[in-house]
Amino acid sequence: MNETSSQQAQIDLMQAALDHISQGFSVFDADLRLVAWNRGLYEMLDLPHALARRGTHLEAFLRVNAERGEYGPGDIEGKIQRRLERAARFEPHYFERVRPNGQVIAVSGTPLPQGGFVTTYTDITAERRRQEKLERTVAERSRALQQSEDWLRLVTDNVPALIAYVGSGPVFRFANRRYADWFGQSVASIVGRSPAEVLGPDLYAELRPYIEWAFEGNAVSYEYSRAKPDGELAYMRSTLIPDMTADGRTLGIFVLSLDASDQKRSEAALVQSQRMDAVGQLTGGLAHDFNNLLAILMGNLLSLKRKGAAVSASDVEAHLAPMLQAAQRGADLTQRLLAFSRGKAQDVIDTSLNKVLDNTATLLAGSLPPTIRLRFEACTDPLTARLDPSQLETALVNLVFNARDALPDGGEISVSLTPATLAAKHAVAAGVTPGTYARIVVRDTGHGMDDDTRMRVFEPFFTTKPFGTGSGLGLSMVYGLAKQVRGSVRIESAPGEGTAVILLLPARLSASGTGSRAADAGGPLPHGAGELVLLVEDDPAVAETVAQQIKDLGYTVLTAEGAADAADLAADVGEIRAMLSDIVMPGQMNGLALARKVRGLRPDIGIALMTGYADLGEGGAGETGACSAGGDTGFPVLAKPFDSRKLAETLKAIVSP
């Protein structure tokens, strides 16, 4: 075989290989004449086979395409000429051409070093069809997703709840209209904001521990209060649910908040019902205590009367001491019973738990049969919890009465308070977060409970007592109190082994602060220097007694029996330096209205109020026998009866220098 035949064989072999390529292929030289091609080129583009010969000029290919409309309508010669000019520049190029039959051809040209170019033609019709189908599918699904989101927005905006989603950051990713409105935002403006921005610094500081606990993968429930734009206080009950992946990562938290204001009012009514039921049971014991106190007073008075003129100063002192103690004890009991029965709901406050136990012991003293021994074990450390003290007192009283009912033949009831620090493991078992807790245990030696009863005791209206003797609300309210402050309650009991109700309340150890107060109580009484004090009291006997106390403290007293007379005296007598007025008086003007009127007439007069009520609504009396700020009254308030020290300190504080 000669050399020419060998070269031709190689060319034929190469051509056969090119014909088996699925793409079209062509090579044009520097003069734009065809040098090489494959069968795929002609089959893909439906080109006449007459063009399939070396030396065919590019113009012939362009003319075929132009004449059959592949380049669109218009000037055929102009279209051919423009394409020839571009090809003669031998620049890399890529474009996609849609043929009249809908076929999509991708054309890619690469220049050769000696001039000319290699061009490949790829049928991408199927690929483009798939892409278009995918785009249509994406568009349809996007529309469906948008419709779904619109429906979700419609539903969540009309649900009577506050709904939101907080993502990592943390920042809000979603909020329904009610949630956004509640915090003064729109559904658009709240997205991307942090909880600190949306909630405000004060509320965020209160709720931050719950948010952090939820982001650690825990479901959290809590309550908080917030003033509405009209000033009314609303109570919200919220639940945070973590949005977690299969591998345990928290992506965000779902937020559901409900307005619990009506429920809180209902709960308050139920609590008051329980409280009044307890008051009825307390009165027997208190009557016994008051009879004992009256016996002390009457016995000492009769003893002094029998001695007549022969009584000595030492005899008077010996008889006065127990009488004063009995009177103070009676005042304390009265104030505690008034405060307990009124049970004014408070926002949670820092509360000394030892003091709550002392108050409860005072209320319960003498209220149990002599066959039952009641023992209180206070904590040696000063434990403070943030809660409503009246609610806790009610809970303890009800628990003690429940224990009493379990001891028909007598026995022992103990109420103990101890601190407890719970690590993560024990906290989870108790259903609380790790930290410091107050552990209050009410234990009795009664008949105990079986498992069925123990499992149901916290259900509202469940009771084992005979019909008409119990509401079944006591333990459910104890449970509600524990949950409200993020604590827990559980019961340990078995038939014949007694019962223990164990309360865990979040608490902290605090400084006692009692030493300095005790020291102050022993100092000399502050006296006046003859300043004129206007005393307003409608009860003549009380007015005479208080007036004498004021005189003994070094002041001059001017007495008025009614508010109208007192207002005239305050306006006319320029020497008056202070006014002490009872709040509850007959007539259209009470003591509080009088104080405000006198303050307007004579701002130079110091004013204090006094009352025999534990709660005044607009102005409270404060602690038993103590001088307080008077709640919203703006004036100090003395709770009757008061001793000379409290009166002296109050007068010293209000008399102008």
From TrEMBL:
SUPFAM superfamilies: ATPase domain of HSP90 chaperone/DNA topoisomerase II/histidine kinase (SSF55874), CheY-like (SSF52172), Homodimeric domain of signal transducing histidine kinase (SSF47384), PYP-like sensor domain (PAS domain) (SSF55785). The keyword DNA-binding does not apply. Residues 285-509 form the Histidine kinase domain. Keywords: Phosphoprotein. Pfam families: HATPase_c, PAS_4, PAS_7, Response_reg. Residues 148-218 form the PAS domain. Its EC number is 2.7.13.3. Signal peptide: none annotated. It catalyses: ATP + protein L-histidine = ADP + protein N-phospho-L-histidine. Residues 220-272 form the PAC domain. Residues 532-655 form the Response regulatory domain. SMART domains: HATPase_c, HisKA, PAS, REC. It comes from the Bacteria. The modification 4-aspartylphosphate is found at residue 582. PANTHER family: SENSOR HISTIDINE KINASE, TWO-COMPONENT SENSOR PPRA. This is histidine kinase.
